[in-house]
Amino acid sequence: MSLVAIGACYLDTILTTPHYPGEDEKLRASSISHRRGGNCPNSLEVLKQLTTNSPSTANVSLNLIAVLPAKTSTASQEIQSAFKPHVNLSHCIFREAFNEPASSYIIKSESSGSRTIVNYNELPEITVDEFTQIAGNLTNPSWFHFEGRIPDITLSCIQYLRQQYPSATISVEVEKPGREGLQNLAAEADIVFYSKSWAQGNGYQTAEECVQKESTLTRKASLLCCTWGQGGAVAFETKTQSLVHSPAYSAANFRVIE
């Protein structure tokens, strides 16, 4: 099985502070950490951990298509090193005129538990021509997963894949509630992942309600999933009308701060 994930790759800087700083306030952070982020890279990281050293998944190939800064930049070198050897980044697009990666700066308040995020990304997004050129040279891909960025471009990419690889599975994320065109992507996908924020933004009160009602609008989809934070996640198989709920994992002494 060859899985290809298409989405942004971020480098996150997390500053943990006693409280959220006010405007013009100088505040000393209690800790700093750096992590790789982005929905698709995070998903591949989990899959990498699940498939590594497992005989039953020895033939699983994980691939990332993302836009990265210059290949020799510190950021790109760091990203490539973190994924090797289990995730293939040879299909990524390197913007040689840029040295800064897509970045997130996160202020994590110890007093409230809130996370305030500031994003920065100057990298030009992938184009349809770039994607089709890459996808056309892939060897027997079996699953394409799209983050759901730039819906009009993603839709064109999906339509190309339907012709080029008719037997491949296509999944998409429907996450940002204000992003137009996501339902058009869902209508073309085999598997759809909905976020709690998108579901609530579209009037759904529960994850179950979301997947069951959206199934009437996604005729091609065989499986619809919706995450619900502390409420866990649900999956709905359209053929059998089966609904499965998985509770969220909570560590000992864990508490949610509203």
Structural summary, described in words:
The protein has about 260 residues and is α/β, with parallel strands linked by helices. The protein has a domain at about 150-258: Ribokinase (UDP-N-acetylmuramoyl-L-alanine:D-glutamate ligase). It is built from seven helices and 15 strands. The chain has helices spanning about 40-50, 75-85, 130-135, 150-165, 180-190, 195-200, 205-215; strands at about 1-5, 10-15, 30-35, 60-65, 65-70, 85-90, 95, 100-110, 115-120, 145, 170-175, 190-195, 225, 235, 240-245. A nine-stranded mixed β-sheet has the order 6-4-1-10-11-12-13-14-15, with helices on both faces. The longest helix is centred in the middle third of the chain and has 14 residues, at about 150-165. The protein is globular. The model has no long low-confidence stretch (mean pLDDT about 95).
Question: Could you give the topology of this structure?
Answer:
Elements: E1 2-6, E2 10-17, E3 31-37, H1 39-51, E4 61-65, E5 67-69, H2 74-83, E6 87-88, E7 93-95, E8 102-109, E9 115-120, H3 128-135, E10 143-146, H4 151-164, E11 169-174, H5 182-188, E12 191-194, H6 196-201, H7 207-214, E13 223-227, E14 233-237, E15 242-246
Helix pairs in contact: 3-4, 4-5
